[in-house]
Amino acid sequence: MAHVLLPTDLSDNALNAATYAVRLFGDEGHTFTLLHVLSPSMSMEGVDVATDLQLARIAAEGLTAFSTKLSKALAGMKPSLATVIEHGVLSTVVKRFRDDANAPALVVMGTQGATGIEEVLIGSNTADVIKHSGLPVLAVPHECTYTSPRRILLAEDAGPIEKNTLKPLLDIARWSQGEVTIVRVLNEGASEDTDANDSPYDVLLGAIPHTHQYLHGDDVQGAINALADQGDTDLIAIVHRQRGIFDGLFHRSTSARMVMHTHVPLLVLHQRSHS
Q1: Domain CATH code at residue 181
Q2: Cα separation of 109 and 18, whole Å?
Q3: H/E/C letters for each residue in 142-172?
Q4: Residue pair 270/136 in contact by the 8 Å Cβ criterion
Q5: How far apart, in whole angstroms, are the C-alpha atoms of residue 170 and residue 221?
Q6: What is the extent of the structural domain holding 60?
Q7: Of 37, 41, 79, 181, which is the most exposed, with the fewest CB atoms less than 10 Å away?
Q8: What is the pLDDT of residues 74-90, one digit of tens each?
Q9: What are phi and psi for residue 36, nearest 5 degrees?
Q10: What does pTM read for this prediction?
Q11: Which helix (H) or strand (E) holds 194?
């Protein structure tokens, strides 16, 4: 049984992500928490008590309506849904869930495509949660419709990896009977022969069908997205670690671009540092 956290701004984009999450996990034995966060600018600071109570009431009504829409979108499914309203910064609120007794196995959020200056601003909440929460995050593009993730692309950086870090991906691959393509990003001058036999993923993936491919070049983000398009990929997974090869992808503006420019859901797994 898994606990899945679904942050929502009550938009259609968030509704699409929540629908994807329930269809991915199924409605039997799992718990889904709809989380709506009132930002500091909307509540508390500089606002009298009566106004703050009114904002909270409006938020509660909106979250109830959102839950009803989600249930209708999931015709025939009856997921266990909980609703929570918090005050604060979204990434900080989500991070607090990490220490709960029933910590989320996954955070699922929507992203919205944009261009120009909007590229940095829209979807920044998802980027911030990816960067700061320490929880695995599944970013679902706004136009994505649910497809069982049978073709999964896992980008690795040759760093150490623990089975617990990989658990969300292992579960998804088993549920969907998916095949994983492990993409090794090679440093300048490295050869494929040098790196061919030292991947820990062969052991960690076990009986899950998997193959290896290699990427060269500086534009990691572009290469991953291009490979996903070529292979008709259903899900991209990346292991994020501090000071790792993918760390640059998760600066606020860059991660916003990555999760918005691909039509494929992006699963970000966090490998905690032991230093």
Answers
A1: 3.40.50.620
A2: 7
A3: CCCCCCCCCEEEEEECCCCCCHHHHHHHHHH
A4: yes
A5: 23
A6: 3-104
A7: 41
A8: 988 999 999 999 988 89
A9: -115, 125
A10: 0.84
A11: helix 192-195
